[in-house]
């Protein structure tokens, strides 16, 4: 429970920092491929010492997916709307996160993962990335051949 509370605090601090900084929202395509139906808004981005912090709003339309990928840093996310189906490349592990739930992805996780919206409404995620300075937020991974 403590980790969830701390993660919510980090997301709130990130959102609050964006308001203070007055960051401008911009739309861009998702970086992981071969994703489809994903749009990303960068809400805020800043660097402290050797660490990049990026706050994004990610929307996945019904039937959309991120594409298989990994992250070199920590990822904290809150499902604002919809349900995230989060599949791991071991083709066994599947997690479902509903509106109001939080998740964390650790950089030491060796398995790639895929985020999907199997619902009928848009999936909206508020995501904070904490990564080494100058490193991409995600790297593409090959499709492991998991059947849906």
From TrEMBL:
InterPro entries in alphabetical order: RmlC-like_jellyroll, RmlC_Cupin_sf
Keyword Oxidoreductase in record: yes
GO MF annotations in UniProt: dioxygenase activity
Highest taxon of source: Bacteria
SUPFAM superfamilies named among the record's database cross-references: RmlC-like cupins
Keyword terms, alphabetized: Dioxygenase, Oxidoreductase
Protein name: Quercetin dioxygenase-like cupin family protein
UniProt organism field: Actinoplanes campanulatus
Organism ancestry: Bacteria, Bacillati, Actinomycetota, Actinomycetes, Micromonosporales
